[in-house]
Design brief:
Number of helices: 21
Radius of gyration: 25 Å
Main location: cytoplasm
CATH architecture of the largest domain: 3-Layer(aba) Sandwich
Keywords: ATP-binding, Cell cycle, Cell division, Cell shape, Cell wall biogenesis/degradation, Cytoplasm, Ligase, Magnesium, Nucleotide-binding, Peptidoglycan synthesis
GO molecular function, one term: UDP-N-acetylmuramoylalanyl-D-glutamate-2,6-diaminopimelate ligase activity
Family: Belongs to the MurCDEF family. MurE subfamily.
Strand order of the largest sheet: 11-10-9-12-8-13-14-15-16-17-18
Bound molecules: ligand UAG, adenosine-5'-triphosphate
Helix content: 25-40%
Shape: globular
Structural class: alpha/beta
Strand content: 15-25%
Number of domains: 3
Enzyme class: ligase
CATH superfamily of the largest domain: Mur-like, catalytic domain
Largest sheet: 11 strands, mixed
């Protein structure tokens, strides 16, 4: 993150990341556009009289409204944006786009002193409205690469951006990134609030990217974003699908509905070319559901017959893997590698490679094909560190911080550990509160099946009782231990810092430690109170205290801070107990 940006509040960061030269649109032009596209807007008398007022930005969060903005006030589960109309007006909002309920609130609170444009589907209309204001169209650029799927979005977008950089930098062009960890416009970055921001911010980012000479950008597209219309009015040059496994059932209700949400991204109206990993039935169904130009990629050992590209000759390397991408019809082969551990990172890297190759084929990137192939074969674009994704902190024991927080990611991560570990696998795992509780027992069972020593601790409980969340994990773990006669050691230890200390305390040099679930995150949310903790820093500290070597890029901590910490023998988890 840029040092300067990190010091700013979220609202200030939003403003720093706004474009400067926005042509904008008048209230009248916006109303005409919404009428033309079938939103049937109603406009208050003040709004009709104020048709000339220029709109030069758009915001949904009242805290990020700036002078001249269209304030998009949506109804939500916690509040209605219109409840905060006074804040938005004080910040300089020029007009409001809202629904019936919002219009009523504005009449009550602000007596319609601001032009109100009323539509039924505010979230749907937000994207096209922002697109008009910021001057975005399906061809205005940058070339947009969207990645969706349960797991692998962040890693694949980092890979994509690294490859795009390797190809485009020599042409004097730079790239952008939008995802869970950060938003980047060339060298400038701000931390992310969401995996996929709201439509108003996305459109502002597209304009900022153009203004900053960014010609291609990689972005994560969460299923929440699709369901909440955050990507409305955006057009993807290439969209990629990683996989679909259980998660987020609290929002979608069923795997079918979860699939349908993701499938909406691969419609020709939103995406020109789709690259779909077809390693299982969900992938094959996604390739069927996609409209427009569809490219199928198989990354497993038993590739689907319909695949266009297949991954072959996977070879494990000391850290990471090398592999060949082969095009079935043309016979073209490209040798690639990734420095990130785990077979799943071969899939992520292959997806990034084929997405860029596809963009080149359809002339979305104005570069010769040989330059893309050469970057893949010689620039090693997939050997990068992705914060908190299979991030190696220690070497003996191998000590890894990973973001696995659903059943499939846990299986993949623990498989990767088993394939390289000479000794025991020690796992620290928790689960987030107020999110898909059905996955907790499954995760507990996977933990004791695949690790030798399992320490159940806390993740982000949010507003839920942390002991209830751990109980869900423990229930699955204990059932698997009993029913499958497993001999893994199971402990419940809180706080998480003690769980990390314990994991290192029981490790020997030949073992593998995995801290799962929190990745790059730097605080835990307990009912709105943020407790600072960074798994990467705490793991490095605990390893150094025991005299274990840390990886060259492990976080360095002040000696003084380490000296006051408990020694391993003192650190038996208070509040923890053997389950
Ligand atoms: C389930 C979900 O995605 N909810 C999002 C949705 O909430 P909502 O429709 O209920 O709206 P709301 O929070 O009541 O707010 C309505 C309006 O009032 C405003 N408001 C609301 C409360 C307040 O105190 N002040 C305030 O100004 C809001 O800015 C908004 O304009 O719209 C809100 C406004 O943008 C989001 O903040 C909120 O994200 C919540 C916080 C969230 O946790 N979202 C997560 C689950 C999410 O979206 N995650 C995915 C990644 C998932 C993954 O792959 O792991 C993501 O793309 O980030
Ligand atoms: N292709 C994949 N298949 C299965 N698991 C994966 C894959 N890629 C990564 N993982 C696992 O999922 C975790 C999250 O990876 P990543 O952050 O790249 O995915 P994501 O889709 O962005 O996740 P989220 O939406 O939760 O942020 C990793 O730490 C790893 O354990």
């Amino acid at each position: 993150m840029s040092g300067d940006a990190a010091a700013l509040s979220i609202a200030q960061q939003d403003r720093v990341f706004r474009p400067h030269g926005v042509a904008g649109a008048s209230v009248e032009e916006l109303v005409a556009e919404l009428t033309r596209t079938g939103y049937d807007p109603l406009v208050t008398p003040v709004g009709r009289a104020a048709g000339e007022i220029p709109l030069t930005g758009a915001a949904m969060d009242p805290k990020t409204v700036g002078p001249g903005d269209l304030f998009v006030a949506v109804a939500g589960s916690r509040a209605h944006g219109a409840d905060f109309i006074a804040t938005a007006m004080a910040a300089g909002a020029a007009a409001v786009l809202t629904d019936d309920a919002g219009a009523d609130k504005i009449r009550e609170i602000a007596d319609y002193r601001i032009p109100v444009i009323q539509v039924t589907r505010v979230r749907d209309a937000a994207g096209p409205s922002a697109a008009l204001i910021y001057g975005n169209s399906s061809t205005s650029g940058p070339a947009l690469f969207g990645v969706t799927g349960t797991n692998g979005k962040t890693t694949t977008t980092y890979f994509l951006r690294s490859l795009l950089d390797a190809v485009l930098r020599r042409h004097g062009q730079s790239t952008g990134l939008i995802g869970t960890i950060e938003i980047a416009a060339g060298e400038a970055t701000i931390p992310s609030k969401m995996t996929t921001p709201e439509a108003v911010q996305l459109h502002s980012l597209m304009a900022l990217f153009r203004e900053s000479g960014i010609t291609a950008a990689a972005m994560e597209v969460s299923s929440h974003a699709i369901s909440y219309q955050r990507t409305s009015g955006l057009f993807y040059n290439v969209a990629g699908f990683t996989n679909l496994t259980q998660d987020h059932l609290d929002l979608h209700g069923s795997m079918e509905k979860y699939f349908e949400a993701k499938a909406a991204l691969f419609a020709r109206s939103r995406t020109r070319s789709s690259v779909i990993i077809v390693d299982d039935a969900w992938g094959l169904r996604m390739a069927d559901a996609a409209t427009g130009h569809v490219v199928q990629l198989a990354t497993s050992d038993e590739p689907a017959a319909s695949a266009d590209w297949v991954v072959t000759e996977v070879a494990a390397e000391p850290l990471g893997s090398s592999f060949t991408l082969m095009h079935r019809r043309t016979g073209e082969t490209i040798r690639c590698r990734t420095g990130l551990p785990g077979r799943f990172n071969v899939s992520n890297a292959a997806l990034a490679a084929v997405m860029v190759l596809t963009a080149q084929e359809t002339a979305e990137l104005r570069v010769p094909r040989q330059e893309v192939v050469s970057a893949l074969e010689h620039a090693d674009p997939f050997t990068i560190s992705v914060p908190g994704r299979m991030q190696v902190i220690g070497t003996a024991p191998a000590a890894i911080v990973d973001f696995a927080h659903n059943p499939d990611a846990m299986i993949r991560t623990l498989e990767a550990a088993a394939s390289t570990s000479q000794g025991k696998t020690i796992l620290v795992i928790g689960a987030a509160g107020e999110r898909d509780s059905a996955k907790r027992p499954l995760m507990g069972a996977i933990a004791v099946r695949m690790a030798d020593h399992v320490i159940i601790s806390d993740d982000d409980p949010h507003g839920e009782d942390p002991s209830q969340i751990r109980a869900g994990l423990l229930e699955g773990a204990r059932a698997a231990l009993d029913e499958e006669a497993l001999d893994a050691t199971l402990e419940e230890i809180t706080p998480r810092l003690d769980a990390i200390t314990r994991a290192v305390e029981v490790a020997e040099a030949e073992d593998t430690i995995i801290l799962a679930g929190r990745g790059h995150e730097v605080h835990q949310d307990f009912a709105g109170t943020k407790h600072p903790i960074d798994d990467r820093i705490e793991l490095a500290r605990a390893l150094r205290r025991r005299g274990f070597p840390t990886a060259p890029d492990a976080p360095v901590t002040a000696e003084a801070a380490d000296a006051v910490s408990l020694s391993p023998s003192d650190s038996t988890a208070e509040g923890g107990h053997t389950a």
